[in-house]
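Narrative summary of target 7.
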Amino acid sequence: MTFIYLADRPEFLPLVAKWYFNEWGALSNASLEDFTNKLSDYLNTDKIPLLVLAMDGDIAVGAAHLRFHEMSIYPDKEHWLGGVYVDIPYRGKHIASALVTMIEEIALTNGVQQLHLQTEQLDGGLYAKLGWQEIEQVESRGVDVSVRVKSLT
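Modeled conformation, tokenized:
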């Protein structure tokens, strides 16, 4: 398993957009084209926002991104981990954990001291196991989510 920036292999952008649309499209009221257009903002390697791909050889098997201000109700919470997705045949192989760790490392090298996320797993799931602390549970787009934080310093 290796990790690369989407910016280094932009031909995978339509695949990631399809993953995200299939997983979260119903919640966002956005089209596949909307997801594709939004992800074009993530074609960076040296600044936020950016997206990392997990690769099995030449096959993209997962993704995660680092972005600004994911939830408008938290204007003071600047940096967010999001879009952690692993393609169905590759689940259960610790790829999501590795993607989260990779994003944490990239965030730290970009001067981020605190990272936030939201998850529909109200017990924190994977994120609780990786040391993310719950701030609170709120409703977001009609779904209850756990908002979490992790100090990177």
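The CA atoms of residues 111 and 131 lie 20 Å apart.
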